[in-house]
Design brief:
483 residues; mainly alpha; three-stranded mixed sheet; binds zinc ion; 21 helices
Length: 483
C-alpha cells in the first residue's frame, strides 16, 4: 500500500505547487496548457488513491496491529475511500464537473449582481451535496452533520448549536452597546509597496517563519499551502493605501505556516503530514494575528522598527493611536474584512442558513431575503446588492458546506490557547522582550508536532486538560470590547 500512497502524496505535492504557482507568479498565457497538465496529474492522483489494491489492503488492515500514526493514516484513508464507495462513480464524476463549472458562474453572477442567474446551479449543488451526505450518513445522522464532521471531527450540530447560541446571546448585545457610540472615520495611511514588502519579510522572520523551508509570495487573496513540512508557501498582499492590511495578512499566514513547519518529520509525505483540521489551523493563524499581533505587548517590542521601516505611514503616529486603529470594531457587510468582534456573527449567519438549506426549511430562491434579514437583525446593516450580500463568498459555489464554522471555531480555540498560555508562562513578558521562541516551542510540543494524528479535542485535552470550551472566547471578547 505504501507505494500507492507515496505516489499519491508526490502527485498531491505537484498539484499543490501548480496551485500556488497559479495564484502567484504563473503567466496568464500558460493557464490553458497548464490546466491540461493539472488534469492529467489529478487523474493519476485519483487512481493512485482509489486503486483496488489500496482498497483491499485498507479493508484488511487491523488497527490493533498498528502504531498510533499508522492508525491515523489508515483512518484518514478509510474516510476518503468511504466517500467514494458510497457514491455511484458516474454521479461523483458529474458532481466534480458541476463543481468545476459552478465557481465560474458564481463569479459572473457576482460581477453582474445576478443571484437569479446563479440560483439554479446553486440549487443543484445543494441538492447533490445533501443527497451524497445522506448516502454517507450513519443511522440517525443528519446529512449536514456528515459535512460538518468532514471538516471538523467531533463538532456536529449538537456541539455547534450551543456554541453559536452563546455567540448570539453574548456578542450581539456587546455590539449593540458599542454602536451607541459612533467611531470617527479611520485615518488613511499609505506607504510604497517596496518598503512594505521589506517590512513584511522581516516580520515573518521575526515571528519564526523558516525561510530555509518556505517561501513568501504575493497574491490577491492571501493563503498558505505546503508541499510538505520542508516547503511551506505563503502568499500575502500589499496595498499602497493600506499597509495594515498586508501586515495582518502576513501575520495570519505566518501563523498557518509555523504550524505546518513544526509538524514532526515522521509524518512527512503521509496523509497526516499537515495540520489536523481547518478549525485547528485557523486557531493558530488567528492566535498569531489577533491574540498576539494586535496586543500592546507584541508591538511595544517592534513598533519603533515599524516606524523606521514605514515612516510615510507610521512615522508620526504614537503607539497608542496605532493600537486603537488595529483594534477598531464596527459592523460591516463583508466577512473577510470583519474585525474580531463581528467576525463570528458573519459565520453565525452562514451556519444558520446552511442548516436550513440542509433540513429543507429554506429554498435557494429565498436565500437573498433570508441573508439580508439576518444581517439586519444581527449586525444592523443590510446589503444594497446581492454581490455584497449572499454572493460574496465562493464557498457554496465550490460545494463547501459545513466549512464556515471552522473559522469561528478557530477564533474560539485561539482564545482558549491564549488563556492557557497565560496560566503557564509570562506571555506579555515574552512578547515585550521580542523573543517568541518559547511560545513557538510550546505550541510545537503540544499541538503542531502531531500533524493530523490527533484531532482537535484530543490536542486541547493533552495541552490543557480540557476539550473545547467556548466560554474562553466569549470572555476574551467581553474583556476586549466590553465597557
Ligand atoms: Zn486562515
Amino acid at each position: 500500500m505504501q507505494e500507492y500512497l507515496e505516489k499519491a502524496m508526490a502527485l498531491q505535492a505537484a498539484l499543490t505547487m501548480f496551485d500556488w504557482d497559479a495564484e502567484t507568479i504563473a503567466p496568464e498565457g500558460g493557464a490553458g496548457c497548464t490546466a491540461r497538465v493539472v488534469g492529467v496529474l489529478s487523474a493519476e492522483y485519483f487512481s493512485a488513491m482509489t486503486n483496488p489494491r489500496v482498497r483491499q489492503l485498507a479493508a484488511a488492515c487491523r488497527e490493533e496491529e498498528l502504531d498510533a500514526s499508522q492508525r491515523a493514516v489508515l483512518r484518514t484513508l478509510r474516510r476518503r475511500l468511504e466517500e467514494l464507495e458510497k457514491i455511484p462513480p458516474e454521479e461523483y464524476r458529474a458532481f466534480r464537473e458541476l463543481l468545476a463549472r459552478s465557481p465560474v458562474l458564481w463569479k459572473q453572477a457576482k460581477e453582474k449582481n445576478d443571484f437569479a442567474g446563479f440560483a439554479p446551479v446553486l440549487e443543484q449543488v445543494v441538492q447533490t451535496s445533501r443527497r451524497f451526505a445522506a448516502l454517507r450518513a450513519k443511522e440517525g445522522q443528519a446529512p449536514y452533520d456528515v459535512l460538518l464532521e468532514d471538516h471538523e471531527e467531533g463538532f456536529p450540530m449538537a456541539v455547534l448549536d450551543p456554541f453559536f447560541q452563546q455567540i448570539k446571546e453574548e456578542i450581539i448585545p456587546l455590539l449593540r452597546r458599542r454602536q451607541e457610540k459612533p467611531l470617527s472615520p479611520a485615518p488613511r495611511r499609505s506607504c510604497p509597496v517596496e518598503k512594505q514588502r521589506e517590512f513584511n519579510l522581516w516580520l515573518a522572520r521575526y515571528l519564526g517563519f523558516d525561510f530555509a523551508r518556505g517561501v513568501v509570495g504575493e497574491t490577491e487573496h492571501p493563503f498558505t499551502t505546503s508541499l510538505h513540512n520542508h516547503d511551506v508557501r505563503i502568499a500575502t498582499h500589499y496595498y499602497e493605501e493600506d499597509p495594515a492590511s498586508g501586515i495582518f495578512s502576513t501575520i495570519h499566514e505566518t501563523g498557518h505556516a509555523i504550524y505546518e513547519q513544526q509538524v514532526d518529520d515522521k509524518y512527512n509525505l503521509t496523509l497526516i503530514g499537515g495540520g489536523t483540521s481547518s478549525g485547528m489551523h485557523e486557531s493558530q493563524s488567528r492566535f498569531f494575528e489577533n491574540n498576539l499581533g494586535r496586543s500592546r505587548a507584541f508591538w511595544s517590542a517592534i513598533y519603533e522598527k515599524l516606524q523606521k521601516m514605514l515612516p510615510e505611514a507610521y512615522g508620526g503616529v504614537p503607539l497608542e493611536e496605532f493600537l486603537q486603529e488595529i483594534n477598531r470594531a464596527e459592523p460591516g457587510l463583508i466577512r473577510t474584512e470583519a474585525d474580531e468582534l463581528t467576525y463570528s456573527l458573519h459565520i453565525l449567519i452562514r451556519y444558520e442558513l446552511e442548516k436550513q438549506l440542509f433540513d429543507g426549511t429554506l429554498f435557494v430562491s429565498d436565500l437573498p431575503a433570508a441573508w439580508n434579514e439576518k444581517y439586519r437583525e444581527y449586525l444592523g446593516v443590510v446589503p444594497a446588492s446581492d454581490s455584497e450580500g449572499v454572493l460574496q463568498d465562493i464557498h457554496w459555489a465550490g460545494g463547501m458546506f459545513g466549512y464556515f464554522p471552522s473559522y469561528a471555531l478557530g477564533s474560539a480555540i485561539a482564545a482558549q490557547v491564549e488563556a492557557h498560555l497565560r496560566s503557564i508562562m509570562d506571555l506579555d513578558g515574552a512578547l515585550r522582550s521580542g523573543s517568541l521562541g518559547g511560545i513557538r516551542s510550546y505550541l510545537k510540543e503540544h499541538l503542531h508536532q502531531y500533524g493530523g494524528e490527533k484531532k482537535t479535542n484530543e490536542l486541547l485535552l493533552g495541552m490543557m486538560g480540557e476539550p473545547f470550551q467556548p466560554g474562553y472566547y466569549i470572555q476574551y471578547l467581553k474583556n476586549k470590547f466590553g465597557e
